[in-house]
């Protein structure tokens, strides 16, 4: 469909489709087999996907809640018995509120402060459609299709590309057995993105979920599956720094990335969850020989986050780069980091982690670098920097290193510091007020992240942090 | 024209039982003049400089630091009301002091990663101009003008609005010009503020910042320390330009006569034990070079 055709289409009708009410279903509280069957049926899924969901459910029910990690966020409020109601709104209203008016003031306020236009606000908060962006998205969609690139909603991909999905979906990258929340995700997942880039194909512009968020919504349990074949190159951007409002308090997404030989994938995300949310995700990439995986992630908002994007360097010469940033304010516990498994010779990885805490917030870097026996001439460099605003805030660094090979090059460096009075005074003496001086220091601190992002994300990220620092977000 | 007037300044370290450092400093610096403030380590020179700029580590127990401005201080378009020509700096925040034309050149400038020189200096210049407007606004007007932060005027898809009086393009021009005057490599503009700068580069950068921010009074704290002879000449050239081209008053804090061969002072003051022990013309610096600070001490004590 060309953009001309698109304009001719009855707008009302196009969006009606998205608003279409799914048949309501009643379920008991607590996650049961019946619930999972209803979800699968509701999505017209093939039998094999239902089976996968049921298997994941079984695993979820058997696994205990993770509670024994040193210093991990308290998950006692995450009530599994209440999980079912989390699912219904996801399906019926696609994870958002019914209308703009229904959103809490703090969320509306943030959109206003970010200076996001009305149409985008509606789209981003999941309450409405966004015509302009839809056009932009459709235009790009056409260009991608010509190259054989697939970018669509994950639910749709199950129906339209069953062979690709069946092979890759929660099989070898993130199996449901990985952890309790991956299992939960496998049972009740809904929505998300599917990206497929064929061999020898470069997608020049970043593929952004931002543009189609209205149509698919950002659910509680969205799944992203990215497959880059040999020599392919793609940059995928998930979400954005605008707040993601969830009526319910558990978000458990899943991301799987397959990087073919000599392929290059960058996955970037800056996510800002409403402050009642427990954000518990599993993200992992498998990289073949000479491939490169890059994770750029910003974790903001949420009551507690546990997120450790992982990369398995499977083929010789594979490379991984992680850049992560975490920001924790009052009452927040952001536990995040990175995992890298060097399973082949000549592999290399870098992890650059930045965290900021203020007003009693707590950040924790939790990382693992594993170098297998035989992964000779592998290199890793881990750098963790923590910046604290006050004496009430906390920051911990827990880097685990499992090195089973002797011919390797391992470096780790960690710095923890309070925002320096001398630095602030220096900037003040040049004319910046106290707040602007601190803002500038933080903007500089997170610069490695913003430099990796397209300008609109970088601007939003800086603006968001500025608002967090003023304490003007809810 | 501006005059910085320090009188009877007493100060101590701002913590419980903090040590007394200044014991009654009197000093007057007029724009267009170069003053050298000399003295041994620990005599209170740097403390004086930091107090002028508003460093929070010191508590003033007595005395005042005034700045007197003439009505044309900030250009012809900026009229200063009669009753707003004298300000007590000690009542103001460091950025407000900067807005009134006070600049401190640091001996050990902070290194700020991730913030480019060009971005930093433009932000500082705009912040200074904005703060100046605010300081001279009548009180009622100020409260009316206080708007709520409404976010960027443009969509985030277009990037930030080019806020501030001096635009990015206009500022690039200004910065380039100033760097050429100081023989600085143009690469400086895109480096992170002082990060990884050599000692000499940092000092040169302090002078560059003064050149861009155009202060009325520049206090330069041991800006000559750790410089080789070539860099010393560069920095000195910059300091002279501050005075000759911008009419700034300079308070040059130094240990050594060396920089005074290139930046010729109109007045020289010797500080001992938290006080100005002796003042004179350029010949005083030469005398110190020959006879050392003990000579001053003897002179002062025998006179007392």
From TrEMBL, chain A:
Any signal peptide, and if so, which residues?
Answer: none
Domain of life (superkingdom): Archaea
SUF system FeS cluster assembly SufBD core domain residues: 211-445
Per UniProt, residues of the SUF system FeS cluster assembly SufBD N-terminal domain are: 137-208
- Any GO BP: iron-sulfur cluster assembly
Q: Which family does it belong to?
A: Belongs to the iron-sulfur cluster assembly SufBD family.
This one is known as: Cysteine desulfurase activator SufB
Q: Which organism is it from?
A: Halapricum desulfuricans
Name the lineage. Archaea, Methanobacteriati, Methanobacteriota, Stenosarchaea group, Halobacteria
TrEMBL record, chain B:
Q: Superkingdom, according to UniProt?
A: Archaea
Q: Which InterPro entries does UniProt cross-reference here? A: AAA+_ATPase (IPR003593), ABC_transporter-like_ATP-bd (IPR003439), FeS-cluster_ATPase_SufC (IPR010230), P-loop_NTPase (IPR027417)
Does the keyword field hold Protein biosynthesis? no
Region span, Disordered = 132-163
Q: Write out the biased-composition intervals (Acidic residues).
A: 132-151
Query: What keywords tag this UniProt record?
Result: ATP-binding, Nucleotide-binding
Tell me where in this chain the ABC transporter domain is found.
4-298
One annotated GO molecular function is: ATP binding
State what protein this is by name: Cysteine desulfurase activator ATPase
Question: What organism is this sequence from?
Answer: Halapricum desulfuricans
Name the lineage: Archaea, Methanobacteriati, Methanobacteriota, Stenosarchaea group, Halobacteria
Name the gene for this chain. Answer: sufC
